[in-house]
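2024-03-11 09:14:02 INFO queue: dequeued item Inner membrane ABC transporter permease protein YcjP, len=280
2024-03-11 09:14:02 INFO validating residues
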Amino acid sequence: MKKTGKKRALGFGRFFILAFFLALVVLPIYWMTITSFKTNGEIIDMQNITYFPHTFTMENYTGLFEMFDYGSLLQNSVIVSVSSALVVTMLSILGGYSLARYKFKGKGAMVLFFLVTQMIPGILVIIPLYLIFSKIGLINTHVGLFIYYVIVNVPFCVVTMRSFFERIPVTLEEAARVDGCTKMKSLIKIVLPIMFPGIVSVFVFAFIGAWNELIAGTIFISTPDMWTIPVGLKSLIGKYSVQWGALMAGGVMALLPTAIMFAGMQKFIVEGMTAGAVKE
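2024-03-11 09:14:37 INFO prediction written
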């Protein structure tokens, strides 16, 4: 009985700890969502804070489209995020495969270098890149943002993809080559289908990294027609006032694509993260 009671107490303890951390994640999203449906008077009334809109309104969403072309912001974000995520995933597959399957001089130093780059603040890279991009005409272009997102995300994704490849036995590729497959064909037809969850995880990581990025978008892009969603939403924060309703509405709309992506790919993301966490 004592063991059963102790086990039950531990179960309740874990439940409350997990519930606490879940609340930390969910409550800000809930507050952003309900604020986007409140009137401006209800939002700024600090004396009577409401936890659900007294007057349900869509004016914040309509105002968002009136202030600037939100569809253009969405298009710019999708173009830059998807294209950079695809290129990062392709480079990560090639780089991760070479690090996992081949032995060459400086391999350990290269992996260490990739890991060390994750400790360098991004702002230190942006300033030199800005000077380089300004010389070659890439300022205020999506190509400049694309190059930055690829540079920033490739090192971590290569190391992550390497761990996925290391879990797959080399004997599978050797058996395929015995049957007449080349190295490239065995990679495409045998290895990549097995590690599809890992590929999805890397793609999602690179996509989210580009989708949510603000600093580089603010520095490299100067005209409103080239803005991405984070840069457009930042413009709602003025020197003396903040348009909270439109800002919350924009946050909800920016969250939807990533939420849909996670909902649709949740199974593959979980499998990929757990697969890359342990080396067999």
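2024-03-11 09:14:37 INFO annotate: The first helix runs from residue 2 to 36.
2024-03-11 09:14:38 INFO item closed
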